[in-house]
């Protein structure tokens, strides 16, 4: 068991190590291309530390399991994300403690400076370059949760050489378009390769494990029953305080009191949905055709359908840049033949009620070749 | 097809419409941003600003899934000064129409417009243009009316490597096409 606070401290620590390493190794690029001076680099170091510390304060109970129940954006596209709640909380509930903290006399931060970096706003100015350390392809968030989750779960899948990543992290200038990105020197490419593989293995073995995913389904289902209108309050001044009342303890208490409907009951009795069919980890269009046939065959027996592509932890296509003293920048996949052949996991898991497993199994076997 | 798969069909069509038959990652990302922001195509992406312009990792996830499904292919192309990505579509137009389903049907004209409007820009220019649109929409959301000079100043703070004149010229080119909303 570990807490989000512990993770947040870890992200702040890792982001600081990354920041200091880039500042030391790539000072010339930071000064010439991003117009930094000594004072600016000192100020933004503290800004990045605060943003890293607060990056997850907007999470609802049980973090990503609850993310689907965030409400629709008025007149916008899609739903709110927890990052928008983090920014809103920083601007309101945390405004006073940030702006009036005695140490802030040295920096003059406004809460909006931190929120702008967290949510990705032009108001963050040149500091936006550092956003990759908090929410990017090779960020402190991932580095911390992979190592921390592995340690606490007791698996080795998420381990990689963090020290070596820090020793080789740099800012890379792309000569053709002049952009500056975070990357690593070629001496660290195996460490970066291990980081990507750690993500891959943690996804397949832990985050997208069929039983763990089943409990996400039940948590979501129970929360939907418990929440008024089935969704969390919005990150608006009128609703933010109510949102903050929804923490793990409140939900656990309600579940313990018998709330949460059928899903709550399944959580209490550990009688979770059972995985009856899984498409291949790398599914082709033909595999989706088979999935469709299986779903039709199962009909009303399908209790839940969970695609890897919907998972917050999905691995996607990594875009980590490597630079050497003799060659220009290259993507990590050019260095690593393993990663060059690594495809995104787009598996889909189908679940049925435990009471109907045998019936479902027979139906699936009628349409799926052994 | 599910909406997620249809979105991969939209990416496939966008690639097919490119005059060269392929696009780079920056083009794919920024064209999706323009589609959502300038044409109000509801693709479900959630862009936020980085120093390299509006970005959503979900576009790269869709690209990865498109590769896994055998719809898209991505190759790394090396140049003397660096590298780029060459993304092509492995399906013919009829197959892409099937994968893209209703979502593609709904936004086909908008995709054609985006490709037509932005096909001649370099990756660096697409980063700049999309950042200008992003800053403009931020001002709009905050209820601000800003001058062209103020918009350019805000973008200059994010992208100091561009000259003031160049940013201003690009902002004016967007304004001439009525693509900015908060500028007065």
Explain what the structure shows.
The complex is a heterodimer of chains A (370) and B (184). Chain A is built from 18 helices and seven strands. Chain A starts with a helix and ends with a helix. Chain A is globular, with a radius of gyration of 23 Å. Chain A has 370 residues and is an alpha+beta fold. With 184 residues, chain B is of the alpha+beta class. Chain B has two domains: 3-118, Orthogonal Bundle (Arc Repressor Mutant, subunit A); 123-176. In chain B, 60% of the residues lie in helices and 13% in strands. Chain B has seven helices and five strands. In chain B, helix 2 runs parallel beside helix 5 and helix 5 crosses helix 6. The model of chain B has no long low-confidence stretch (mean pLDDT 94). Classes of the chains: A alpha+beta (370), B alpha+beta (184). Chains A and B meet through strand 6 of A and helix 2, strand 2, helix 3, strand 4 and strand 5 of B.
Secondary structure layout plus pairing:
The complex is a heterodimer of chains A (370) and B (184).
Chain A lengths: L3 H22 L1 H7 L4 H17 L27 H10 L3 H5 L11 H9 L11 H4 L5 H14 L8 H7 E5 L6 E6 L3 H19 L2 H17 L13 H5 L3 H9 L4 H9 L4 E5 L6 H14 L3 E6 L13 E3 L6 E2 H4 L1 H4 L7 E5 L4 H11 L3
Parallel strand pairs in A: 2-5
Antiparallel strand pairs in A: 1-2, 3-7, 4-7, 5-6
Chain B lengths: L2 H15 L4 E2 L1 H14 L9 E3 L2 E3 L1 H13 L2 E8 L2 E8 L3 H26 L4 H19 L6 H11 L5 H13 L8
Antiparallel strand pairs in B: 1-5, 2-3, 4-5
Helix pairs in contact in B: 1-3, 1-4, 2-5, 5-6, 5-7, 6-7
């Amino acid at each position: 068991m570990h807490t989000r606070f512990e993770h947040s401290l870890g992200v702040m620590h890792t982001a600081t190590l990354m920041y200091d390493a880039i500042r030391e190794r790539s000072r010339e690029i930071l000064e010439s291309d991003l117009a930094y001076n000594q004072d600016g680099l000192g100020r933004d170091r503290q800004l990045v530390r605060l943003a890293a510390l607060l990056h997850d304060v907007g999470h609802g109970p049980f973090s990503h399991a609850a993310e689907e129940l965030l409400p629709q954006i008025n007149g916008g596209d899609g739903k709110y994300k927890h990052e928008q709640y983090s920014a809103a909380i920083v601007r309101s509930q945390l405004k006073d403690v940030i702006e009036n903290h005695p140490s802030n006399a040295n920096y003059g931060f406004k809460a909006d400076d931190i929120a702008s970096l967290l949510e990705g706003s032009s108001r963050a100015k040149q500091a936006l370059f550092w956003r990759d350390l908090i929410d990017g392809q090779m960020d402190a968030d991932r580095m911390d949760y992979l190592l921390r989750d592995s340690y606490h779960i007791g698996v080795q899948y998420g381990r990689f050489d963090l020290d070596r990543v820090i020793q080789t992290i740099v800012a890379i200038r792309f000569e053709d378009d002049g952009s500056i990105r975070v990357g690593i020197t070629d001496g660290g490419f195996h460490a970066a390769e291990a980081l990507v593989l750690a993500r891959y293995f943690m996804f397949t073995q832990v985050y997208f494990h069929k039983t763990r995913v089943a409990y996400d389904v039940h948590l979501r289902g129970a929360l939907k029953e418990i929440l008024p209108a089935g969704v969390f309050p919005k990150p608006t001044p009128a609703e933010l305080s109510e949102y903050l009342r929804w923490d793990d303890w409140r939900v656990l208490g309600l579940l313990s009191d018998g709330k949460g409907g059928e899903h709550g009951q399944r959580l209490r009795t550990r009688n979770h949905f059972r995985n009856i069919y899984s498409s291949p980890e790398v599914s082709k269009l033909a595999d989706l055709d088979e999935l469709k046939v299986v779903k039709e065959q199962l009909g009303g027996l399908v209790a839940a359908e969970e695609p890897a592509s919907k998972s917050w932890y999905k691995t996607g296509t990594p875009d980590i840049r490597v630079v050497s003293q003799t060659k220009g920048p290259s993507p990590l996949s050019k260095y690593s033949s393993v990663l060059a052949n690594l495809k995104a996991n787009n598996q889909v898991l189908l679940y049925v009620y435990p009471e109907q497993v045998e019936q479902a199994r027979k139906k699936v076997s009628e349409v799926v070749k052994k | 097809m599910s909406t997620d798969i249809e979105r991969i069909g939209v990416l496939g069509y966008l690639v097919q419409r490119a005059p060269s038959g392929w696009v780079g990652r920056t083009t794919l990302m920024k064209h999706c941003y323009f589609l959502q922001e300038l044409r109000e195509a509801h693709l479900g992406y959630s862009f936020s600003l980085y120093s390299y312009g509006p970005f959503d990792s979900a576009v790269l996830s869709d690209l990865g899934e498109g590769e896994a499904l055998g719809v898209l292919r991505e190759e790394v192309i090396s140049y003397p000064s660096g590298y780029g990505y060459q993304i092509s579509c492995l399906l013919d137009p009829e197959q892409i129409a099937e994968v893209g389903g209703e979502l593609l049907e709904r936004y086909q004209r908008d995709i054609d417009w985006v490709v037509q409007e932005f096909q001649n820009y370099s990756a660096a220019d697409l980063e700049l243009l999309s950042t200008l649109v992003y800053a403009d929409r931020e001002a709009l959301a905050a209820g601000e009316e800003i001058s062209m000079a103020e918009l350019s100043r805000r973008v200059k703070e994010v992208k100091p490597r561009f000259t003031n004149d160049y940013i201003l010229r690009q902002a004016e080119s967007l304004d001439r096409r009525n693509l900015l909303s908060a500028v007065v």
